Amino acid sequence: MSAAPPTPFFSPAAERNKQPLLEALQTLLPPSGDALEIASGTGQHLEHFSAQLPGWRWQPSEFEPERRAWLLQLRQSWPKEQQQRVAEALALDVSAQPWPVEAEAFDLVFCANMLHIAPWACCIGLMQGAARALKPQGCLLTYGPYLEDDVVTAPSNLAFDADLRARNPVWGLRRLADVQAQAQQAGLHLAQRLAMPANNLLLVWRRLQA
């Protein structure tokens, strides 16, 4: 018999990818800054990153109230110094503009595994909201699987895409070219593409230079 998940909200995928993501963040980010996490979900990324990146302050966010309540409960279980680096989760609908945050307040907007399990309007909203929330030298990081016109899609990703669309017709893996088009309309461009385990990508988006 398999062990029960250790929390009411637990993602095996987040548990697997949190360390590779942390290592990428340690390479990409300066020693300190302010981060806004979109769709904080189970809080596993937030917990790992806030513990291992002590120079960073985090503003989590979630659309679902039960997950915001869980994030508050999770935060209260951490060491005091870690709690002090993490704010209470915001109620944030990524597709509703403007977001309830100050303009140019963040060095990082981080969003993992949302675009393929949300309507396309959330991709549009993510790009528009991040462009407003980021400081001039800040970056948006998106993580997950994508469809690329010039790259053969892994069979596992094709099966995942079919499963997502069967569960909800507005879900599904996004074409990277379509995401790039929305980013450009919002004033962002794809600065780096990092291959990650399990056929995922970590994408770094920055402001277009005038």
Q: What this model shows, in words?
A:
It is a single chain. With 210 residues, the chain is an alpha/beta fold. The protein has 2 domains: 33-92; 96-154 and 162-210, Vaccinia Virus protein VP39 (Rossmann fold, 3-Layer(aba) Sandwich), CATH 3.40.50.150. It has 7 helices and 10 strands. It has helices spanning 12-28, 44-52, 65-76, 80-83, 120-133, 155-167, 176-186, and strands at 33-38, 56-59, 61-62, 90-91, 106-112, 134-144, 146-147, 174-175, 188-196, 200-207. The strands form 3 sheets. The chain has a 6-stranded mixed beta sheet, with helices on both faces. The protein has a two-stranded parallel sheet with strand order 3-4. Strands 7-8 form a two-stranded parallel ribbon. Helix 6 (155-167) links the parallel strand 7 and strand 8 (174-175). The longest helix has 17 residues, at 12-28. It is globular, with a radius of gyration of 17 Å. The termini are far apart.
How would you describe this structure in keywords?
Rossmann fold, globular, single chain, 2 domains, 10 strands, two-stranded parallel sheet
What is the topology?
Blueprint: H1 12-28, E1 33-38, H2 44-52, E2 56-59, E3 61-62, H3 65-76, H4 80-83, E4 90-91, E5 106-112, H5 120-133, E6 134-144, E7 146-147, H6 155-167, E8 174-175, H7 176-186, E9 188-196, E10 200-207
Parallel strand pairs: 1-2, 1-5, 3-4, 5-6, 7-8
Antiparallel strand pairs: 6-10, 9-10
Helix pairs in contact: 1-2, 5-7
How are helices and strands ordered from N to C?
HEHEEHHEEHEEHEHEE
Domain count: the total is: 2
pLDDT averaged over residues: 95
Percentage of residues assigned to helices? 25-40%
CATH class categorisation of the largest domain: Alpha Beta
Give the amount of beta strand, in percent: 25-35%
Low-confidence stretches: 1-6
Spatial ordering of strands, largest sheet: 2-1-5-6-10-9
Would you identify the CATH architecture of the largest domain? 3-Layer(aba) Sandwich
